Amino acid sequence: MKIGKDSAVLVVGAGIMGAGIAQVAAQAGHAVWLHDARDGAAAQACDKLGATLQGLVAKGKLAADAAAATIARVRPVAALTEAAGAAIAVEAIVEDLQAKRALFAELETLLGADAVLATNTSSISVTAIANGMQRPGRLVGMHFFNPVPLMKLVEVVSGLRTDGEVAQAVFDLAAAWGKTPVHAKSTPGFVVNRIARPFYAESLQLLLERAVEPSVLDACLRGAGFRMGPCELIDLIGHDTNFAVSRSVYEANFQDKRYMPSLLQAEMVAGGLLGRKSGQGFYRYGDGGGVPALPAFEPASAPYAQRVVLHGAGPVADRLTLALAGQAFERDTASGWTGLEVDGAQLRLTDGRCASAIGAEVAVFDLPIHPSLGGRERGTPLAFALSDRASGAWVQAAAQWLRAAGFHAQRIADAPGLIVARTLAMLVNEACDAVHQGVCSEAGADAAMKLGVNYPAGPFEWLARWDAARIAQLLDALAATYRGERYRVSPALRRRSWA
Predict the structure, then answer these.
(1) Which of 155, 202, 232, 341 is labelled catalytic?
(2) Which residues, in sequence order, are bridge partners of residue 348?
(3) What superfamily would CATH give domain 9-186?
């Protein structure tokens, strides 16, 4: 089965997503019929598309003849019967199961027997939508991301009864449209919305525990390579929208504690603190508000010490040698931990335990995993925490040693796993579980997260740069602290940790 460039495309739903899909299909050379149940909506969308394309022409980003050809290929239709010759229909209507079922029941009677039916649903089971269809095998998910013309990812979602040839035809079609398609199984959240939950959930948990301020949390995750921190991103998305997705995934997974929504976010939604759209979320917007910057990074020299031991090996240990310039030190690569031992006090890379659980004169620091770590960029924000029993002298010295290593040290409460380490560990764990359950491939998970939500790396790329055994150890430590199911290690990750 193949859907060629000469095949006509029907797009049902002329909102932001539907209009974007129509634009992409038309730019790829297809004749496109655009329909919306609301009178005049499809025509208005075509007019807006024309204005958008002319704007691109004015900016020199699109040739005038290409813009004219694209808009000429899109025709608004008042009745679905006018599009009976379409080879594929892409639905982009309201996220309501019954509404989608009713639409596809109608399309089955109008379109040819070989026509492909695709749904752009972001949260509803493709299997459930297909229930009751005469030929459920020809229904497939074709989940685009907003804004459709710019976002490269398309999740091609197969329900239990989707024909493999149909899924592959849509996969190939998306690729022909200039997108990067990823095969996915119809499970709650598909690939992106499932694997991404910990990015929000771990930050919300830390905020609920009052372990860190939003601006510090965001800065540390930006320091790990993310374009936006979770607090500023949720403010941009809208707390109501983000909370609704979290609840949907949680409920669809039969209230699996791994996906449990946040009490803090529920309270913010109830209070109308929705983020940018309401003027206030984690941050206040307008009148010069927004995400506050951290104080400027101040380099430091390492404090005097009589005996320093550098523990561990690898990139993090190598980075710590920046703090040891001109300092005599010993090496211990067999101790089982990474960090510095300074006159008996310890500055350790987190293994998921609180500093207080390790000892008195102990500080733990977060995972420095920014892509530029090899370049030894100075001033990268990095969280650290101190044992409740640490002396005042070690409190000051630990921060100074981190600054001497080039990190913009940010002290937070003694929370297990700190910020970056626990977030990335949970993202990797969720991705391993998704692959274990056949939701997607490892390459698909990496592509989906980089293209769908602009992650600096995919979860399996992080896994390759980190270590499965250490990730499992960190999650086990979190599980021991919180005593719940949330941090259970995926069977797939556990097996990797034994290798």
Answers:
(1) 155
(2) 339, 364
(3) NAD(P)-binding Rossmann-like Domain (3.40.50.720)
Nearest to residue 19, comparing CAs of 37, 44, 1? 44
Average pLDDT over residues 321-331: 91
pLDDT digits (tens, 9 = 90+) for 228-241: 999 999 999 999 99
Question: Could you tell me the pLDDT band of residue 370, with boundaries at 50, 70 and 90?
Answer: low
Q: Is the pTM of this model over 0.85?
A: yes
Q: What is the DSSP letter of 61?
A: S
**Crossing angle of the two packed helices 16-27 and 64-73, in degrees rounded to 10:** 120
32 φ/ψ angles, rounded to the nearest 5 degrees = -125, 130
The one-letter amino acid at 348? R
Copy the structure tokens of residue 303: 């404090």
Which residue in 7, 120, 122, 490 is the catalytic one?
Answer: 122
Domain boundaries of the chain, sorted by first residue? 9-186, 308-411
| Model confidence pLDDT, tens digit, residues 421-462 | 999 999 999 999 999 999 999 999 999 999 999 999 999 999
C-alpha–C-alpha distance, residues 83 and 75, integer Å: 10
CATH fold group of domain 308-411: Transcription Regulator spoIIAA (3.30.750)
SS3 123: coil
How is residue 497 written in tokens? Answer: 């940790």
CA angle 437, 439, 445 (to 5 degrees): 115
Catalytic residue among 35, 143, 311, 408: 143
Give catalytic status of residue 193 as yes or no.
yes
Report yes or no: 417 and 481 within 8 Å, Cβ to Cβ.
no
At 309 the three-state DSSP class reads: strand
Q: What is the rounded distance in angstroms from the CA atom of residue 178 to the CA atom of residue 192?
A: 19
Asked if residues 133 and 104 have their Cβ atoms less than 8 Å apart, the reply is yes
- pLDDT(373) > 60: no
**How confident is the model at residue 234, as a pLDDT?**
97
CA distance 410 to 212: 9
Residue of 7, 120, 193, 490 with catalytic role: 193
The β-bridge partners of 364 are 348, 385
What is the rounded distance in angstroms from the CA atom of residue 429 to the CA atom of residue 352? Answer: 14
* Active-site annotation holds for 131: no
Instruction: Answer whether the bond into residue 147 is a cis peptide, omega within 30°.
Output: yes
Nearest to 233 by CA among 275, 286, 204: 275
What Cα–Cα distance (Å) separates residue 346 from each residue in 220, 305, 320, 386? Answer: 22, 13, 13, 10
**Between helices 214-223 and 230-237, what is the axis angle to 10°?**
110
